[in-house]
Every structure is written in structure tokens, then in C-alpha cells.
Amino acid sequence: MSREALTRMTKIEVVARTVDSDAVRRQIVASGASGYTSLPAVTGLGHHGAHEGRALFNDRDALTLTITVVPDDRADDLIEGLRSLLERSTGVMFVSDTYVSRPHYFS
């Protein structure tokens, strides 16, 4: 399938502390996004050092990756809302163009 048969949209990925992930998801839903995927206990190495996922009974130090795809015309407001949220807490956001085969899933 070529890209001409696909619809361009915006993918937004947010890695934030698990205690902040509810606020991230609320922002996504409030923007009118049709859904999201949330992956708890992600691990990695970044600006604040290594994160090894969730220790038993310790959600405070865990990280969650939340991913959503929105039509381009909804992306700017969502990005600004998430930037504002991330200025008050630890986390990173990645924004990229993506192509989907079923655009009605995201409208």
C-alpha cells in the first residue's frame, strides 16, 4: 500500500510519571481525540537518569507512555495543553507526522 492511499495525521507520544498520566489522558480526551494507548512501567535512560519501570508498590517513580493520533487540525491545541502540563511536571513529548489506513477511527 502506498502513502497516497493513506491519510496523514499527527501522532503525539508522552512519557510522564505515572502519577501524572491521568492528567495526560484527560487532556487527550478533552481535545476530542477518539482514543489513546497507555503503556505503564516503561523503562529508559534520559535527562533524569535511568528508569527501570515500576518497583513493587511504587507507582510514584514509574513512567507511563501515552500515545494518541489526531487529525492535524486538532493537534496544535492538544500539543499546547500537553506542553503546559509538562512544564509543571517531569516528562517529554514527541510529535510526528503519521499515516493511517482508517482515518474514520481517529475522527
Question: Can you walk through the features of this model?
Answer:
This protein has 107 residues and is α+β, with helices and mostly antiparallel strands. The protein has one domain (3-105): Alpha-Beta Plaits (2-Layer Sandwich), CATH 3.30.70. Helices cover 27% and strands 40% of the residues. It has two helices and five strands; from the N terminus they run βαβββαβ. Strands 3-2-4-1-5 form a five-stranded antiparallel β-sheet. α1 (18-30) packs antiparallel against α2. It is globular and about 40 Å long.
- Determine the CATH topology: Alpha-Beta Plaits
Question: Count of helical segments?
Answer: 2
The coarse overall form would be: globular
Total number of strands: 5
The ordered H/E elements are: EHEEEHE
How much of the sequence lies in strands comes to: 35-45%
Q: Give the integer mean of the pLDDT values.
A: 88
List keywords for this structure.
single chain, 107 residues, alpha+beta, Alpha-Beta Plaits, 5-stranded antiparallel beta sheet, 2 helices, 5 strands, 27% helix, 40% strand
